[in-house]
Design goal:
Length: 224
């Protein structure tokens, strides 16, 4: 089964370049493209791709609004994985897209092989998040907004160990680094993450990171 990909970007050369790059891979099938957010939503609903590459900034409807519509479909609607494409690694639009359930983001000037790998990672159901960049993004947004912690009872649903794992995730640690820090097995870390997502009704690691900040479980560190 090939992974079906839709490319949404307002620059025709970007669409053509990304399309040619991905179509050359035997396991990827570029089923369509779109020049703005409205087209992206319409084409995604018509073509039902597995992954949508979504530029953040587009005319008529930006990528953030389009991503939100695709990630919250009507009952019975198709819900693709969305990978945000951006020029800036500290783009507040990316933060909002991750909050809405996007599976990650990729800088548009990333090497070609990174784009191919990113599509495969997202298609497999994983979140594509460079931990250090994601942490900087969220720290920056939270500080600039001066957002008070959400009054949340959800964190009380977590065991002490699960809360520790969630803090480590939000601090940008990989599973292997969390395992080493807490002196537990990597498979145990994966089990804890699965329970965290289920208890908090979160889709993936990206939403878990944002929840940790917005709930006040993790506070941005000044000067980072």
């Amino acid at each position: 089964m090939k992974t079906r990909v839709l490319i949404a970007d307002d620059h025709a050369m970007v669409r053509a370049g990304f399309g040619a790059l991905l179509a050359a891979e035997p396991d990827l099938d570029v089923v369509g493209d779109a020049a703005n957010g409205e087209q992206a939503v319409a084409e995604a609903r018509r073509l039902r791709p597995d992954v949508v590459l979504m530029d953040v900034r587009m005319p008529m409807m930006d990528g953030l609004r389009a991503a939100k519509l695709l990630l919250d479909p009507p009952p019975g609607g198709h819900r693709p994985r969305v990978l945000m494409l951006t020029t800036f690694d500290l783009d507040e639009y990316v933060y909002e897209a991750l909050r809405a359930g996007a599976s990650g983001f990729l800088l548009k000037d990333a090497p070609p092989q990174d784009l191919i790998a990113a599509v495969r990672v997202v298609a497999s159901g994983d979140a594509l998040l460079a931990p250090s960049v994601t942490k900087r993004l969220i720290d920056e947004v939270m500080r600039s907004r001066l957002v008070p912690p959400l009054p949340s009872v959800e964190t009380s649903m977590l065991t002490r160990r699960e809360a520790e794992v969630l803090v480590h995730i939000a601090r940008g640690l990989t599973n292997s680094e969390i395992a080493a820090s807490l002196v537990i097995g990597e498979q145990t870390v994966k089990t804890h993450i699965g329970r965290i997502l289920a208890k908090l009704n979160l889709r993936d690691r990206g939403q878990a990171i944002i929840f940790a900040y917005e709930s006040g479980l993790v506070v941005p560190r000044s000067g980072e």
